[in-house]
Here is the input.
Amino acid sequence: KAGVTQTPRYLIKTRGQQVTLSCSPISGHRSVSWYQQTPGQGLQFLFEYFSETQRNKGNFPGRFSGRQFSNSRSEMNVSTLELGDSALYLCASSLASGFYNEQFFGPGTRLTVL
Amino acid sequence: GESVGLHLPTLSVQEGDNSIINCAYSNSASDYFIWYKQESGKGPQFIIDIRSNMDKRQGQRVTVLLNKTVKHLSLQIAATQPGDSAVYFCAENIFLGGGFKTIFGAGTRLFVKA
Here is the structure.
């Protein structure tokens, strides 16, 4: 069974631009969560989707948004990029509602904002 | 507030010795805790989990202990191997808004000396 895939793996953008990251969960998984990982702040929860609905959102500004499609694939978008948005963005999927279910992480997208 | 933290940022052990990684959490209502391992260039990987109605859970070479009285979690790795070198995160799932969010600790880097 294929794991969680994220595209692109690396991305370089400049301040003010916007970016869209993609996540394909494991087949059959309906819950997808996104996290931001930085050396200073560690792993921080961005949002969680289940069956195309955002159920929870972390403490991030409105520039960070996401969506989930009917095939459970998910995208996250960051508008008006800032230098501090440079981070590893991780996506994780789980089988059902996710609370007691193991989350499987993708390799991440490394975003660098110049 | 919600936080999951780790006592030590780095831990160095000799190959074959046992490793103990500690974690403190602040949300007394938390119900589900997970340990993840993250190797360089990869996303976090599930190691073991424990629900709040348990004190101890064992896996292959790993044991998680939960002390709800002092809100402390630990991961014990038996006969530590070079392949165990990684960053280890404790995490806590918080049930919220019909879904959940995962709060990660800061991480402990484990070095295994041959």
Observations:
- The interface with chain A takes residues 32, 34, 36, 41-46, 49, 51, 89, 91, 93, 95-107 of chain B (CB under 8 Å).
- The CA atoms of residues 38 and 44 of chain B lie 4 Å apart.
- The first strand of chain B starts at residue 4 and ends at 6.
